[in-house]
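Table S2 (continued). Query chain:
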Amino acid sequence: MDGGRRSQRGTHPEMLAFLGTPMSKISSLSSGTSSFNIPWNRGLSTNRSSQTQTPRTNANVVMQWENRPSWNQRVYYRHRRKSAKYGGSSARPHPGHSESCPCVPSATASSSSFEPSQSQSAKQMPIQDPAALAEESQSAAKEDETQAKYRKWKLRIFYSIFMGYATFYFTRSSFVYSAPGMRAALGFSLEQLGIITSIFPVAYGISKLVAGILSDSFSTRVFMAVGLAATGVINIIFGMQTSLVSFCVLWALNGIFQGFGAPPCAKLLTTWYPKSERGTWWGFWNTSHNTGGFLIPFLSGYAVRNFGWNYGMILPGVIAIVMGLFLFNRIRDSPEAVGLPADIAEEENLDEKEKIVTDAASNGAKPKLSMKETLFKYVLTNPYVWLLAVSYFFVYFVRQGISSWAYIYLLDFKGVPNPQDAAFRMSGMEIGGLLGSLSSGYTSDKMMKGRRIPVIVGWMVGLIISIIGLWYVPVNWRIANWLVIFAIGFFIYGPQMLVGLAGAELVDKSAVSSTIGLLGWIAYLGASVAGFPLTKIVTSYGWQAYIMALVGFSAVAIALLLPMWNLGVKVDKKAIRLAELEGRQIPCGQCGGDGTVMKLECGPATPSQTLSCKYIEDVCPFCNGTGISPSMA
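Corresponding output:
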């Protein structure tokens, strides 16, 4: 069989003979035409039996070498072979080739006819300039290299700011989990701890405003790294002090440097990521504070239990300093700082920029209001903004009251055996907060069609039930305690997010920043009241008053939100006017014109069931069952 294959191809012996032939003898060989086989194109012919066998002479080998196919022709026939193998359409034989073997010149074809004509070449396989091909190949390779580098740096920036901002929460919450040990070691009262707690939100609220302005003027890399390292140094010094005045001054400084975390992250996310991807990256980054809040109870709780309250502050501080150095090494301010094109992340923003220019041109006749006029027209004279702001005060009071004092409540009142066990139970709050934020946003967007207030009210009702559960669940039910605190986090973080969103949607776009600023300022006032004033209530009336205060403030927030129940129900005034002129009716936007909505009804069912819930069809409260938009009534 080997002999048959060798005789069919019949080229390897000639090549060997050719390689061993002196050059003088090769040059004297005949140059006449002949039929031959070409070893480098073997396997292309579909009818090998028809190939003409030629004498095995060195002259044939020389002719094979001189008349060998060009590189482009070999690529052409390689493509033909693959197309035929995988079911593609077979190409026509190359000009100048025999029918039996399209890759071999016929016996009668001249050496010049082996190459295709100019017209045929242009139709079948255009041959480009080698210099242009090389330049295009280099350009494509450079573009691939640039994109690979850009992807690597996007990932690097993301995990850096994620880890960095999570560490900011280490140095922010370290005092909460060190306070019980500090109270026992230094003999501080609950009111003294409350004073320290009240100072932080005031300093932090001011810092967020100032740092947002300063971060635009300084390197984000330096700004975030220095801010995180500074909070670490402050935590370490805090762990070495013993006086109340020193604690207050240091914790106020910590609140100021804590504001150096979020603005640089926002700027980096805007600079490094195109708009089409930014929402996804931003959403994942937003979970970093939940990650930090989840880990710090275990870290500080372990340090306090095994080494003392000082190390509950010192250990997070050391981690923050190391992470600050890490951020300085890993972060770069912009793509051009690492040799990438300056506009590599801006291609998705071009439409947005053009839209802004177009809107500005179309609104050119509209007079632009000053900052003072905008503030008074859209914010200060809007009663809904004030209702939201005051309700935000109570929402933040409850949130800060739980995150700051529920840990001590578990140790002092519930009798949890050690700080580490209490820290485990508190870890459920951040996980619940993450899920609560995501689910509340989805519910208000998809199920309630943009209506935020009903979702906030529903979450606040769930919060009241969860706080009552924290009072009644026995201390030895360890997992049940974790689930209750998980539910508290789930129901408190949703309203915290949606109140700000509802405020931004209430006003004109030019007043959004002012509205958010007002809401945030009043919210942090509520957080500061959850410090010393709340601890004074606890020391005067006991921990039962603490639970009652949380429930009562939650109820007040609900009462303030109820007048805004229908906010977010969009009414198309043009459609209503057109319907009035045509004598038509606009269906209710809440029930879709059916006049009924689905309602969840709960009540006692059987002796084996304490509570049973089911969905029932009820009259739509928005249109009173008419199915017609109230604006048409």
